[in-house]
Amino acid sequence: MRIPASILSLLAGMALVLSGLWIGQNVDLLPAQASANAPVYDELFKVLFSIGAILFLGIIGLIVYSLARFRRRAGETGDGAAIEGNLPLEILWTAIPAVVVLFVGIYSYDIYDRMGGMTPLNDHSMHGMASQDERTWGGISPVSLGGDPAIAPLPVDVTAMQFAFIFHYPETDITSGELHVPVGQPVALQMKALDVIHAFWVPQFRLKQDVIPGQPTLLSFTPTRPGQYPIVCAELCGPYHGGMRSTVIVEEPESFAAWVAKNSPAASATTPSPLQS
Amino acid sequence: MTISLMPETSGGSLQPQGWLRYLSFSTDHKVIGLQYMVCGFIFYLIGGALAGAIRTELLTPISDFLPRETYNEVLTLHGTVMIFLWIVPVVNGAFGNYLIPFYVGARDMAFPRLNAVAFWLIPPAGILLISSYFFASAAQSGWTAYPPLSTTTPATGQIIWILSVLLLGGSSIFGGINFIATILKLRRPGLKLMQLPMYCWAMLGTSILVVLSTPVLAGTLVLLSFDIIAHTGFFNPAMGGNAVVYQHLFWFYSHPAVYIMVLPAFGLVSEILPVHARKPLFGYTTMVYSILAIVFLGLIVWAHHMFTSGTPPWMRLFFTIATAFIAVPTGIKFFNWLATLWGGKLSLNTAMLFCCGFIVNFVFGGITGVALAQVPFDIHVHDTYFVVGHFHYIVYGGTVFVIFASIYHWYPKVTGRLLNEPLGQLHFWLTFVGFNLCFAPQHWLGLNGMPRRVAEYDPQFTLINQLSSAGALLMALSTLPFLINVVMSAFNGAPAGDNPWNALTPEWLTSSPPPVENWKGEPPLVHEPYGYGVAPGQLSLNASSGRDLWTLGQSVEEP
Question: Which percentage of chain B shows pLDDT scores above 90?
Fold first, then answer.
């Protein structure tokens, strides 16, 4: 007595779903998590990877099985079964992807909301220095990330040009080629481009925003893990596009304060410089 | 009203005969189809050589193989050549021109001279584009030509690029009008729309997209050329323009362009699979409606290319959902193809292997596509090698695999000879392994921090880039058995007879190669282009083995 095909398909389906979930949970393809929205992003990635793995393995399995099971053997000349369609079956495989896609859409909307991406444009509430012509939003707001809203964000002006990022700290008047930020404090980047379109990308922050000439852009994030991470220009901006890189240095608040004290023009003015002596 | 049939006039024709007609302004749709095919393949080799230059540069993390400006010229030319001179002309122009008149039961396209004009725009446009590298410098702003970069890089190359793309867009529009007219108006009397082979529906949908969206690209590029030549300020923020408007207009064409490249491939797969699976195409009606749904949705998803460009949140939400829903009609097509294979008698020949390779690659590219449609996901990987990998899974793993499948399938129709099967299988496996080795690792590169269009990168990515380049080398090598096969088989291939696959679609119901005007007598009226297989229980003495009779009780219905 053979095991009925329906039981076998059920078992195969269960094995497929379980292995897809296992793969999604255990495959680690992403770089380190260094900002508050990186874990949120990775959660979405795992869900998408699980669904994708189930679909992909299932379809590969079906194709390989079909090619092996239904291949034309030597000497065979007949045709296959004359089945032209099966409407209930087709409704089923229209409905299932529709439900999956809808679920993924709602879920990613939720993730996006948790990242702060759905905050309306021109919301100046978190950034006191916001100018009137500010039009765009980078997608992340530290306020909605569950961090302590009492901590005021650190404002930084970012200027993107061929082929460098310049960081200016308006509160302390420091200008730097590297971005120094304290861990745990929200950072609000006020970005502008001087020549062509650039993009500010920190892979470990899971964060990217185009910097478009004529369109000052606000982007904010909360770093969570001390370390040095690359800042990469992600929009083709000319011959040295590949070399347009910088570093973001996430430091403990004390060492960040020390860096500020050391580099601030206000601080260096009080210490006698060779020119003044 | 008389219809004069005067075969003797062809003897005195001014048109060249023999092989020379392939270099002439021929109005025969089969000649034009082959012209598109061969011309496209030459540009494929050029684009492939450019890709080879890119992968060679990326063997090392520093920029050491090409000057940086040249690298940007190479990547711009690679994208433009592959899209506008290889894939779009071949899946639309080559197969469309060759097959559509057969499928509707016509003797030629609706506008044969327009058809020839459409083809003959392509070689000058292509030569113009490539020659710009030699007498000025080619465009350096990528195939997307985003301003302000495209208005600040050397102007001559960018203007030549715009001219060339305008010519190619014109060719594409002429072709689209011709396909719509042919499919809707030249059908043999008695042939209903819902009895057409699926490729006709795919080409109808594609041509609607071409006619609706290509003029938008043309207008956009004209404005861009004004910005470059006349220093107008349409897209120049310093003069009150807006760079993002260009992106909206550009992607309004260039997202549908993906469907212009992929929908015809879907149609071709729907023709090839039933023949080699010996089963009817599963779910004809839902296939038709899913094509129409893809056409509609394809027009309203363009802004998903701009999720990091500062689009408002509501727009991101709308375009996420619209984009993700394209997966539904696309999924229907893939499930229908799987159901077509299920229970068939599959010939595992090269055409079938390339079709299955297409399904595997495209499903992978589709899954990463649904992920990319999600705004939060896209924010991390936008403009990285993840997108490069995804895109090549769609256009190479998808469309180019189908082009090869189609060449193996229709070569006997065009030449009357079969391609060599072992060489074909070698070609398939080299391509399949090389392709996956080249592009699968690129997803990891993108996730971990390598942006696209760079000549230099973080040294931690060296090994994976070298793996990818090794895959590219395999892909380049895979072209050799194919070229040898196509050239040798034209002279020495096994004679195929008129219908080697026992296919039922109308192009096989004539001699191979077909005569001028396609049929000696009346065109056949094919109501069931996929009428393979016979209802269960029906026996036929044509079945040659006892196994056939015993297992399925079905027969071959000889056409």
Answer: 76
Per DSSP, helices labelled H in B186-277 are: 198-229, 243-277
Is there a domain that residue A186 lies in? yes
The pLDDT value recorded for residue A84 is 84
Range of the domain at A244: 136-269
Quick check: is A60 in a domain?
Answer: yes
Distance from CA of B30 to the nearest CA of A (A): 30
Question: Residue range B450-459: average pLDDT?
Answer: 93
- Which of B140, B148, B284 is opposite residue A84, by nearest beta carbon? B284
- Measured in angstroms, the CA of A265 and the nearest CA of chain B are apart by 32
3-state secondary structure of B494: coil
Distances (CA, A) of A127 to A124, A201, A216, B497: 5, 21, 13, 76
Please indicate whether, in this complex, the C-beta atoms of B345 and A78 are within 8 angstroms of each other: yes
DSSP result, B82-110: IIIIIIHIIIIIIHHHHHHHHHHT-SS-S
Residue B288 and residue B194 in contact, taking contact as beta carbons nearer than 8 Å: yes
State whether B72 and A93 contact (CB < 8 Å).
no
Q: What are the tens digits of pLDDT across the range B138-170?
A: 999 999 999 999 999 999 999 999 999 999 999
Give per-residue pLDDT as tens, B252-276.
999 999 999 999 999 999 999 999 9
Least confident of A185-194, B307-316, B408-417: B307-316
CB contact under 8 A, B534 and A209: no
| Residue contact A79–B317, C-beta within 8 A | no
The minimal CB distance from A76 to the residues B360, B375, B547 is found for B547
Q: Could you state, in order of their start, the residue ranges of all structural domains in chain B?
A: 26-528
Please tell me the predicted confidence (pLDDT) of residue A4.
Answer: 84
The topology under which CATH files domain B26-528 is Cytochrome C Oxidase; Chain A (1.20.210)
**Residue A86 in domain:** no
Put simply, the answer to whether B543 touches A199 (Cβ < 8 Å) is: no
